[in-house]
Design brief:
By secondary structure, the chain is α+β, with helices and mostly antiparallel strands. The chain has eight helices and 15 strands. Among the domains are: 237 residues, no CATH class; 55 residues. The strands form four sheets. Strands 2, 3, 4, 5 and 6 form a five-stranded antiparallel sheet that branches. Strands 7-8-9-10 form a four-stranded antiparallel sheet, with no helix packed on it. It is elongated.
């Protein structure tokens, strides 16, 4: 122990006498390398966390950051959401369940017949989407949404438009139409004040013009205890997004019967029935007027009115000479699908679903492999960069310890140039080796042909 202490004392005395000639341990080198190693490990851990998070995000769950949650919960465009055709559930104890078949028919057939039919659940759910009408070019579907207000027993109505998908058959366009794809604002709306008890206001689409640019709608206002008060034809122009109330035709009918027959319709219960657009001129709307003055309704004539409500004319007191267009379409049930067809389609669907499940599983597997490959490549890159930075650091320290300050930069550049040349030679050798391998494989394939 005494000899050890004497050695340390001698070394200290020598350091005092000759200064820097006896080097002390260099702690800065160790600290710098440890710090670099620590940063390198942190970067590798971050890449590992990203890899794990990417695997979890393949099927989004509650385990996510606030930023990821906000991205997933951002509002989406309703028009881009895909809706599958609903399939009725098949009970486990039944082999065959009757499947309805559908067909496309004219909507306004016979003219003036479309009406809103309210179901029994309307007063429980307090809303119902009624039968829709499809335009002649199958680009849009218009349907009324009826609302019920139990506090006053009254109803109101909105008319919405759904733009149909283009890359589908006409049948699939209608079957896949969903209210989630409707335009946010209705094209027509009734008064929604519900202070009058038992009043109802509905909007019923009647028909389109042949080019689909205009829609005829009838607005009915009445009372559940007293019947219909008034029906007003309304024309909506899709080119200008403007609606026209054709109230002039009612005034014209009242004036005609007052002046020619001395019949005051204001004292009578009467109404009009919009039939559709004239077949020979889509700018004119045809309506029929009826008075309820006794046991049997009295025909008040068939009238035409301009689609903007500017003119009204009496056509005839009989409907034989009136040609009315039937341009819109609707979907109706047309029986049931044959059991043989249903069973065959069920087998096909099972094969398709099985193949889709298999493909989805393979895609998920490939996605995980791609993520893992990307992660390993990134780790390899980080390791190579760290290894290169450590070599570069050691080289700088070596040059700094054995060379004067004026020659450090020149010496460093020379050594780096030699290292870079060797690296390029190695890469070129690998490239030539790979090229020879590809040539051999190509030659082998040619020989087999």
């Amino acid at each position: 122990m005494i000899y050890v202490l004497l050695g340390i004392a001698a070394a200290f005395c020598a350091y005092i006498q000759w200064g820097d000639e006896i080097p002390l341990p260099n702690f800065d080198k160790d600290v710098t390398k440890k710090e670099a190693k620590y940063i390198h490990n942190v970067n590798k851990q971050e890449e590992k966390d990203k890899f794990k998070r990417a695997k979890l995000n393949r099927n989004p769950s509650g385990y996510m950051t606030m930023e990821e949650y906000e991205i997933l919960s951002a509002p989406k465009d309703r028009m881009t959401v895909e809706i599958d055709v609903p399939k009725p559930p098949t009970p486990a104890d039944m082999v065959y369940v009757p499947q309805p078949s559908y067909k496309i028919v004219r909507y306004n057939d016979p003219p003036g017949s479309p009406e809103i039919t309210l179901t029994k659940t309307f007063y429980q759910k307090r809303q119902q989407n009624a039968q829709g009408i499809v335009s002649p070019d199958f680009t849009k579907l218009v349907y009324p949404a009826v609302y019920y207000y139990p506090n006053s027993g009254s109803t109101a109505c909105d008319l919405f438009v759904i733009n149909l998908e283009e890359a589908k058959s006409n049948m699939d366009k209608i079957l896949t139409a969903n209210t989630i794809h409707r335009l946010s604002d209705p094209i027509l709306s009734t008064d929604k004040t519900n202070d009058n008890y038992y009043t109802f206001r509905t909007l019923t689409p009647v028909d389109f013009t042949a080019d689909g640019s205009k829609l005829l709608v009838k607005e009915k206002i009445g009372n559940s205890k007293d019947g219909i008060w008034r029906t007003t034809p309304v024309v909506y122009d899709f080119t200008t997004n403007v609606s026209y109330d054709l109230i002039e035709v009612r005034d014209a009918i009242i004036y005609y019967w007052k002046e020619n027959r001395n019949l005051n319709l204001e004292d009578k219960r009467w109404d009009i029935y919009p039939l559709g657009f004239a077949a020979d001129n889509p700018d004119w709307v045809i309506v029929n007027a009826v008075a309820y003055t006794g046991d049997f309704p009295v025909n008040l004539g068939t009238w035409s009115v301009n689609s903007k409500g500017e003119q009204s004319r009496l056509i005839t007191f009989t409907n034989s000479d009136v040609l009315i267009g039937m341009n819109g379409y609707k979907l109706i049930k047309d029986g049931i699908v044959s059991p043989d067809i249903s069973e065959m389609e069920e087998k096909q669907l099972k094969r398709i679903e099985k193949e889709k499940t298999k493909q989805k599983k393979q895609q998920d597997k490939d996605e995980v492999k791609a993520l893992e490959k990307s992660y390993k490549a990134k780790i390899k890159q980080l390791d190579e960069e760290f290894k290169e930075s450590q070599k570069d650091y050691d080289l700088r320290r070596k040059i700094q310890g054995s060379t004067s300050s004026d020659e450090i930069l020149v010496k460093y550049k020379e050594i780096k140039a030699v290292q870079e040349a060797k690296k390029q030679q190695k890469l070129e050798k690998q490239r030539r080796k790979e090229l020879r391998r590809l040539q051999k494989e190509r030659q082998k394939v040619e020989n087999q042909i």
